[in-house]
Amino acid sequence: MKNNVVWIPSYPKSGNTWVHSVIRAIARQKGFPIGEMDVYKLIKSKSLPDIYPLVKSEISNSPCSVLKTHAQYSIDLHPKLALVTKGFCYILRNPLDVILSGINFTRIQYANRKNDHEYQNKLFLDFLGFDDPIDYETWKSISLDDIDTHNLDHALDYFMRTEGDIPFFMGLAGNWFAHVDSWMGVSNSLVSMLLKYENLIDDHNEFLKIKLFFDVSDDDILKAVESINNINIQVREDPSKPNANIFYNKMASHYYLEYFSSQKIKAFLDKFNTRLEVVGYNNLPY
Questions:
Q1: Do 14 and 116 sit in the same domain of this protein?
Q2: In the chain, N or C terminus with fewer CB closer than 10 Å?
Q3: Which residues form the domain of 113?
Q4: Higher model confidence: residue 233 or residue 135?
Q5: Is the model's pLDDT at 284 over the cut of 90?
Q6: What is the pLDDT of residues 157-187, one digit of tens each?
Q7: Is 240 exposed, middle or buried (CB count within 10 Å of its CB: 0-12, 13-18, 19+)?
Q8: Could you tell me the CA-to-CA distances from 217 to 18, 64, 144, 161, 200 in Å, in that order?
């Protein structure tokens, strides 16, 4: 027998950890302790997902889970868990910021790829255009501010040339445009909503839109947002905190303006204007 699920999907580094943590916190503060909601951790531990008790009956008239994923949509998504999709809340972030946040994330990802020469070559040579790979101990201390604009522009060139590939996310989520298209392509056939990362940062009231799926109040949602954001602040201020394993990288909207050259950003927007217009990113600043 298959179980119902509402998905919280996004391309990596687009905000679904933030959103799913808020949804999880809502249940906990209402007295429903919810376990793991990361589909990859469930599969790895061979565990079944908890039922999320606040899903509206009109979304699912039988028990339903809520899970985050980075996979592209398919009708038989994560088949090991035998799930029936009842709806989804897609988290979208502009791809220019996704590229930079992804580069930041490699400082964590690389820890498990220290001896993976193919990964190193794709990241440092193909994507960033360095002459040689950089060792892990050096890379983990390098921030975006330490990387030359030439190399960051090289990464953007790679994304443009491949029509949306980010090499260190391909196995998990595939191409950025294909990922967005896979979920947006079924938005009219499933109960669905789109949340933009930039809007969530600019106005936390954007989180109130999740009431489409859940029997919760505005106050329930905003209290949960505050509690999760406070955890993030505490972790940034003191990495020894118990929740320091939670990695949130909530930066200002459109921070790509500080790192890519304006000429390269304009070339990107010119090339993808029509495709970005579909999701409302055709007027990004440069």
A1: no
A2: N
A3: 95-175+250-277
A4: 135
A5: yes
A6: 999 999 999 999 999 999 999 999 999 999 9
A7: exposed
A8: 19, 19, 39, 45, 18
